[in-house]
């Protein structure tokens, strides 16, 4: 079975977010997919099977399956475009979050994702204690998004991961207006055994509507300020977020399964 290891949201190796992509002829047992994801120990391993129209796609973290993952979708689209669907420029993925559409535009892969809701919730002492700094605003959908005044707070943040795990939301994103970018962010998912995710497409389904409204623009140049770092171009189109990024392949391997 072929497995591709790629760095998503980057044009340089050893930056962006690592993902493994397994292209299957048919679905493996769920436990085996979970075991492969745990063995890889990346934030996500994607599994895809060709369907009658497009591809079925599932994502597994070391802690289990999730319903939406941006960087592993980007990685899967890149692998399919470059190794399996060389004549095509569009792919539809059938996922737990509905149909996701990906297109090839020059060096970029564009992903069409649903917008997450910005349900404002009170800022609590627990948020400040977990993150090491009090946010000015907080919003909750699948994930918790905390908004801060200053980019330097985001870049220098050293959260208490055990306390982050006790906050609401599957993961906790933090964001602030950027200096060289429209916005910067980081994302922590200890609930799924991911202390910090290097670059995250799905949290930008919340970040994009927040900052496009505040900045009065429809598209953003975003930066996720993890140790590896990564760049995203995000555009709000009604109830969809178009997230674009680059990908570089690190390795192509054969799993002995």
How is the topology of this model organized?
Elements: E1 2-8, E2 17-24, H1 30-40, E3 44-50, E4 55-61, E5 64-66, H2 70-84, E6 90-95, E7 98-105, E8 108-114, E9 119-120, H3 125-131, E10 137-140, E11 144-147, H4 151-156, H5 161-164, E12 172-177, E13 183-189, E14 194-197, H6 204-215, E15 219-224, E16 230-237, E17 240-245, E18 247-254
Parallel strand pairs: 2-3, 4-6, 11-12, 13-15
Antiparallel strand pairs: 1-2, 1-18, 3-4, 4-5, 6-7, 7-8, 8-17, 9-10, 10-11, 12-13, 13-14, 15-16, 16-17
Task: Tell me about this structure.
The chain has 257 residues and is an alpha+beta fold. It has two domains: 125 residues, Diaminopimelate Epimerase, Chain A, domain 1 (Roll); 120 residues, Diaminopimelate Epimerase, Chain A, domain 1 (Roll). Helices cover 21% and strands 42% of the residues. It contains six helices and 18 strands. It has an 18-stranded mixed β-sheet that branches. Strand 7 and strand 8 form a beta hairpin. It is globular.
